[in-house]
Every structure is written in C-alpha cells, then in structure tokens.
Amino acid sequence: IGTILALISGLSRLGEAIIDGPVQIKRAIPTLALIPLLMLWFGIGEGMKVTAIALAVLIPIYIQTHSSLRSIDSRYVELAQTLRMGYREFIREVILPGALPGFFLGLRFAVTYAWLSLVVVEQVNATSGIGYMIDLARNYGQTDIIIVGLVVYALLGLASDGSVRFFQERSLSWRRTLA
Hints:
0% strand, single chain, elongated, 8 helices, mainly alpha, MetI-like fold
C-alpha cells in the first residue's frame, strides 16, 4: 500500500496534494496507539493484527519511496523527454531505477516496524506464538523464557533484514556505491 501511495503522490502533483497530507497525519500517530481503535473496528482476531502491521509498515515505505521519486535527477527526466520515451518506458527506465534505493531503505525500516508491531499484537488475545509465550512467562516471572523469546525475535529480525539486503543487492547490482 505504501509503495502504491508513494508512486501516486510521487508522480503527480494532484496525487501528492490528495495523499501526502493524510499519510503525514498517520505518521504523527504511533501505530501502536491505534490498537484500541483497531480492536473496536476489527475485533481481536487476525484482521486487527494484520491491519496494525500494515499500518506500521506503510509509513517507512511511503516516506522513503516518495523521497526517492522526488529526488530523481532532472537530467534523467530531460534525457527521457529528448529520447521521446513513452510513459511505460519512462517508468521502467527512469522512475523505477530512481525509486528502488529508497524503496529498499523503506522496506528495511518496515521489516523492523513489522516485527515491533507483531510483538505487541501477538499479546492481544493470543493462544500461541512468541508474544504469547513472552506474556505468559511474564505472568509467571520466568525471565529466562522472556529472554529466549527476545533472542528469537532478534534473530528473526536479523534474518528478515538480511533477506531484504540480499534482494536489494541483487536488484541494485548496477549501482555504483562507495563500498
């Protein structure tokens, strides 16, 4: 959702006028603060949990992708116009390569926010999962189990970030970097 909104607002002044304001308002409201409202609207099932995680990852992907779109070098746009590129070719050859670095940076932040949100929403009416295990251990004062749960979350977070970095390196192998 964040990518689509960023593309609409990043490629169109009208899109930006319509979309950017509400997204910035959402950015000012912590996603975890919305959980009571989401529980009222969606109940305490999986729908609420998925919605909370989706709202958490929307902002970093939107912000980074939108910023990348807005900072594409105008020389590339002028070159595309000079070469009389069609709209699809312009998107494929100029816009997507220009937006990908920001998208992947946003995705890396989003993965972190997804895990953070999952930890919280897993403790809402859960009967299984790592968050449930941690919450149950808290009730019984089992610090060792809480620490094991946190280590598992840390390892999952590192693996997720590693996956995104792998795809980032594959997708941006053409790009020159300092390292």
